[in-house]
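Review session, final week

We close the course with one last complete record, chosen because it touches almost every idea we covered. It is IQ calmodulin-binding motif-containing protein 1, a protein from Mus caroli with 598 residues. Go through it on your own first, then we will talk.
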Amino acid sequence: MKPAGTDPRILSLAAEVAKSPEQNVPVILLKLKEIINNTPLGSSELKKVKQDIYCYDLIQYCLLVLSQDSSRIQGGWSTISQLTQILSHCCVGLEPGEDGEEFYKELLPSAAENFLILGRRLQTCFINATKGEEQDKLLHFFQIVTDSLFWLLGGHVQLIQNVLQSDHFLHLLQTDNVQIGASVMTLLQNILQINSGNLLKIEGKALHSILDEILFKLLSTPSPVIRSTATKLLLVLAESHQEILILLRLSACYKGLRSLLNKQETLTEFSRELRQLVDLLTPKIHQEVEEQKLHKAACLIQAYWKGFQTRKRLKKLPSAVIALQRSFRSKRTKMMLELNRQKEEEDLRLKLQLQRQRAMRLSRESRLNMLEIIHPGQVEKYNREMEEKSALTIQKHWRGYRERKNFRQQRPSLTEYKAAVTLQRAVLKFLAKCRKKKKLFASWHGLQELTDARRVELKQQVDDYVKRHPCSQMSEAASRELHAQAQERLQHYFMGRAIEERAQQHREALMAQISTNIEQLMKAPSLKEAEGKEPEQFLSRSRPVAAKAKQAHLTTLKHIQAPWWKKLGEEPWNEIDVPKDELSVDLGMLFIGGTKPP
């Protein structure tokens, strides 16, 4: 699918490639370099240009040109090297869209393979060249191709594994030429700097071949540049990957490697890297290095953890400050309230003291005024009356205090008594419900099935009743009036039923209370055996009962105190009349438990 808004330069270039003969296509494709260079680097416009180049198959044309013989291409190796630059720049940063699978799985591996093939061709031409100028040009073109390959691998890291497993790359690495070997070793070093983990993903045979070639160049090549690069490569691999270090130390293929490295010249530019490599291959030094690494890792973990804890505390600091301020303000508010309360209590105490002093002063003044008004002969009587009133007041307060104290002491027993009454009431109510349910369901034995003859008989009876009692027509007003009367009667019924239910509950409560009192009386000791305040627990809460008891008690006392001659002719069960005045006076002084005085 062709994208909308295509660059007109790409359109004209694609049309020119399609119309031109095959030998002119490479030179026309070189115009892509000018288009890419004139577009700002990293801009969205450059991404759009690369998408247009890929959509119009210009990248595929570049791959086809690179696969041709250099002698058939106009411009030779110069054109080919520029096309490799164009191809690598177009592939890096390209978003293929819907054709992503074809781009990543076919086009990119094919481009990397073509770059390696071009490198091998340039290597062969460089070795066969006799002139120095021609070798310099070929070496320059070779470096351009390797740089383009490195640029492509930097943008697509997944191609590194394909390149390292390629036979063409291994042939390039095995060259004896110093200049080509230095370029290839530099390329390998740059590749491993991008991602050295892909070296462990390749096959074991390819890995051994690469390590063997690096060790060969380190031990046999006279060029110090290649040896330095090889030493740095081995040092990076040994430090980064524990598997490669174990392979170099323990594998039989590399037995005696440490002694060969010790025999190398020490007064060289890479003697420090070489010494580090030898130390890594030494077991003790290797253990120390591992401990240092572990120590550094532990320090790094501690640093990250401490930083995390510090950041966490800093995040919680505002809330902690807010909580501290809140607690301080609440404490200060409580202190102010306490000070205000103490101040109010002090003011109230002073006010009461002033009121008491004022009342005492007024009392003394009124007493003096009364003494002035009263006749001297009645002063003693007045003082006696005042003393009696004062004594009565003191007695009243003392009795109130005593009764309140006794009530507080009896409160637990009263609470238990009320709880027992409540439990008895609930149990009696529950038992009554159970008996009621039993009565409702006792006579239920299920319905008998009706026979056909019985159904016919019942139907005949219903029809006869309907004929004898035909329904009368009723007007709407009469129906509404009848409905209103029914609603009113129903309301009266429900109200009366609620009153009856409350009365029934009251009767049940009274019955439960009477049962409890009877049970207590049955279990009570005789008056001779009673001790302490046990008789007070049987004082009645009902005034009529208390009055009747008092009347019976007074009757008994009158009968006992009467002379013997008045008892002649009387039966012991005969009642004696007691004056109502005497009974009411006595009842006024009677303490009735559970009630308050009027």
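Two points worth writing down before the exam:
The radius of gyration is 61 Å.
Confidence is low (pLDDT under 50) at residues 582-598.
Good luck, everyone.
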